[in-house]
User: Which sequence fits this backbone?
């Protein structure tokens, strides 16, 4: 059965800490892995990863994919309270079809 | 500004009533999707459409119906046959099949059925 598993389910840190969020998957016909940030409403797109070992970076956020071990990590350095959100991992299979993990809820305290 | 508009933001209905959630996009995307989000669970696919006048069931289509008469619009009807309709509903779109492209989401509709 295809599945996407995120860990931890929730995380509480203090401003300035570095966090690592995990996403493992078992999906047939893998095409890409995506990370989203969801605050109150619409998930907003962070990264799309298709190739192993190539880090994608945007400011304090970075992500990498390991297609051999079937996982991805999302790193956030020097966390801020504005990083508090649910982070969703999704895996695209076939064309434009997606499985989502249940998310990691990050709470950054001042 | 291009984007996806879902309406209404909040919706309250009595059990046994059908209700239709609106989703409109002006991104010129071919594919559109409806997802349901429940607390502690990932997004689950209800229906998707790759082109106008064509749509397919997702993983949890029972009790729902859709139409795709125009490229811009993909309304979702929650029927009285849906056993647990109270949830947060997200509409999304992507460019087209055959290309790696991310989903773009609307702001969601929170449906409460009592």
Assistant:
């Amino acid at each position: 059965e295809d599945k996407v598993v995120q860990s931890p389910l929730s995380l509480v840190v203090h401003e300035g800490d570095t966090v690592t969020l995990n996403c493992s998957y078992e999906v047939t016909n893998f095409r890409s892995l995506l990370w989203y940030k969801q605050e109150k409403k619409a998930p907003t797109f962070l990264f799309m990863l298709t190739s192993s070992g190539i880090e994608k970076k945007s400011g304090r956020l970075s992500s990498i994919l390991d297609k051999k071990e079937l996982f991805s990590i999302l790193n956030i350095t020097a966390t801020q309270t504005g990083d508090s959100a649910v982070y969703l991992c999704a895996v695209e299979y076939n064309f434009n079809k997606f499985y989502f993990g249940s998310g990691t809820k990050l709470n950054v305290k001042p | 500004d291009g984007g996806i508009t879902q309406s209404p933001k909040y919706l309250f209905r009595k059990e046994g009533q059908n209700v239709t959630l609106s989703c409109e996009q002006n991104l010129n995307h071919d594919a559109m999707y409806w997802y349901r989000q429940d607390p502690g669970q990932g997004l689950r696919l209800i229906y998707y459409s790759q082109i106008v006048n064509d749509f397919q069931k997702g993983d949890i289509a029972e009790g729902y119906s859709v139409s795709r008469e125009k490229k811009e619009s993909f309304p979702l009807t929650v029927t009285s046959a849906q056993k647990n309709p109270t949830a947060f509903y997200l509409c999304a779109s992507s460019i087209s099949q055959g290309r790696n492209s991310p989903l773009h989401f609307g702001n969601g509709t929170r449906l409460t059925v009592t």
